[in-house]
């Protein structure tokens, strides 16, 4: 019998192969070895120009951004210090000068 990996979700030793995937009969989790390498690369947050962003970086807004629920606008060229990378559609958590705490999309930012 082949030496199969334990389930990454519940650590069960009763995994089996189904085509190109491994399956756990206890928690019904499915995964592949190829997916693990793709996920690691997928979690890299990049700015509008492809530069990798990390916690604490300083960025600049490259486009006027309307603030939802307000008539305020975050102007192009606004510098933001000390960003934090978070999960979700708006993947940057930061404090915008003159506007307070906000979550922004990395596609509208440029690393300084």
TrEMBL record:
Residues 4-32 form the Protein YjdM N-terminal domain. Residues 46-111 form the Protein YjdM C-terminal domain. It holds the Pfam family Zn_Ribbon_YjdM. PANTHER family: PROTEIN YJDM, PROTEIN YJDM-RELATED. NCBIfam families: phnA. Belongs to the YjdM family. This is Alkylphosphonate utilization operon protein PhnA. It comes from Pseudogracilibacillus auburnensis. The lineage of its organism: Bacteria, Bacillati, Bacillota, Bacilli, Bacillales.
